[in-house]
Specification:
The structure is a single chain. It is built from three helices and nine strands; from the N terminus they run H-E-H-E-E-E-E-E-H-E-E-E. Strands 1-7-8-9-2 form a five-stranded antiparallel β-sheet, covered by helices on one side. It has a four-stranded antiparallel β-sheet with strand order 3-4-5-6, with helices on one face. The chain is an alpha+beta fold and 138 residues long. Residues 43-128 form the DUF306 domain. This is DUF306 domain-containing protein. Pfam families: META. Keywords: Signal.
């Protein structure tokens, strides 16, 4: 009995994060990098997942598109990816490079509350996304 209770306690302590599903990914119109503050009028990098396995993203300057595949053991793969090749101001290109690098490194994902937690191949957390929010333009 004691081993059972200890196992149940340890299982409950593993966190509320759960395997990501298509419903999780498509539950919001777009995802953006999680921040502690409300974004300014600048448009954040976003990614939108469709129920049919397609995705599109506005990572800063260009448009990113492709497919995603949810696999076993929290696997999340981005495949058949493409991107337009416009040149924009440095700050938008830097934002884009940072966001696309995050997506390129993502190999696993879990849902935890409102957050989509992204992990690299070693299952180390590399970023969090949250539902897109509007900034204030005052």
């Amino acid at each position: 009995m004691r081993k059972f209770l200890l196992g149940a306690i340890l299982l409950s302590m593993t966190g509320l994060a759960s395997a990501v599903t298509v419903e999780d990914l498509t539950s919001t119109s777009s995802w953006m990098p999680a921040t502690d503050s409300v974004p300014s009028c600048d448009i954040p990098a976003t990614i939108t997942f469709k129920k049919n396995g397609k995705l599109n993203s506005e990572p800063g300057c260009n448009s990113l598109f492709g497919d995603y595949v949810i696999g076993d053991n929290d696997k999340l793969e981005f495949v058949n990816m493409g991107m337009t090749r416009k040149l924009c101001a440095k700050q938008y290109m830097d934002l884009e490079a940072s966001f696309t690098d995050l997506l390129n490194k993502t190999k696993f994902a879990k849902k935890d509350g409102k957050y989509l937690i992204l992990f690299d191949a070693d299952k180390k957390e590399i970023g969090r996304l949250e539902p897109e929010r509007s900034g204030s333009c005052s």
